[in-house]
Each structure stands twice: as C-alpha cells, then as structure tokens.
UniProtKB/TrEMBL annotation:
The keyword Hydrolase does not apply. Keywords: DNA-directed RNA polymerase, Transcription. It holds the Pfam family RNA_pol_Rpb6. The keyword Translocase does not apply. One of its GO terms (cellular component) is DNA-directed RNA polymerase complex. This is DNA-directed RNA polymerase subunit omega. GO terms for biological process: DNA-templated transcription. It comes from Christiangramia salexigens. SMART domains: RNA_pol_Rpb6. InterPro entries: Pol_omega/Rpo6/RPB6 (IPR006110).
Length: 108
C-alpha cells in the first residue's frame, strides 16, 4: 500500500468519538480494529524501510570506518516524516477503507 498518498495528519489531532465508533457502535471494538490495522501498517513500513536501507549496507569486519551515505540519510528522514501508523490507521477507518467483521455474528 502506498502510505504517501493517505492524507493523515502528522501531528496529534482530536477526532470525534461518534465518528470513530459509528461503524461498530462500540468504541472499544473500533479501537481494537484500528489498533490491529496500525500494527499491520507498522510492519509494512518497517519491512519497506529495511529493504531500502539494506541496499546501502556494507558488510565488512572493520568497525574503524563508518561511511555516511547521504542517500541513506534522506531515506531515513523521509520515513521519519511520514505520519505514524496509528494516524494512518485511523484515517483509513474514517474513510471506510478498512474491512472488518465480527466473528461472533458469523457463528450464530
């Protein structure tokens, strides 16, 4: 997923509780769904970042010389400027981009 295209706030913002719990009717259930999605987003971002930083890795036994690569620094700064995973997840939730289902309802 392309997280650069999601219009999530970088800073902390206040969100109306009624908007968050509207799809489920239960704020705790809504927060649980958003938290699970935030965990997924975090692992995707981490995997993508590690793949990009792995391109810059040098494998040598000498710890005397540490090279600073400007491209590597720019990649790191870019990922630091991205909105946090919980902000991305809540924005997806408010935009109805997260599919969820209650397993208790399907069993009955």
């Amino acid at each position: 997923m392309d997280f650069k295209k999601i219009d999530a706030p970088v800073n902390t913002t206040t969100i109306d509780k009624n908007l968050v719990d509207a799809p489920t009717g239960n704020i705790y259930e809504a927060i649980s769904v958003v938290a699970k999605r935030a965990t997924q987003i975090n692992s995707e971002i981490k995997k993508e970042l590690l793949e990009k930083l792995d391109e810059f890795a040098t494998y040598n036994d000498s710890l005397d010389e540490i090279f600073e690569n400007k491209e590597q620094i720019e990649v790191s700064k870019f990922y630091e400027r991205l909105p946090k995973p919980h902000a991305l997840a809540i924005q997806e939730w408010l935009d109805d981009k997260i599919y969820f289902r209650n397993t208790k309802d399907t069993e009955e």
